[in-house]
Fold this protein.
Amino acid sequence: MSKMKTAADRDRRQLVGATRGRDLYWGFTIGVFANLVTLYLIIQGGDLRYCNYSAYGSLVGNF
């Protein structure tokens, strides 16, 4: 007899799956917006030759 077939176990598995899905959705959403903001900053900044290395490294690190 399987130990994972009670109603409480099914409910718990569904809740854990929904939580993982929600966290994955928000992670991707935040990542997409962060990359779009970074692209916007790069486009508005123009020439990156005058940008210091730490700022340039943080911009490239987002990708």
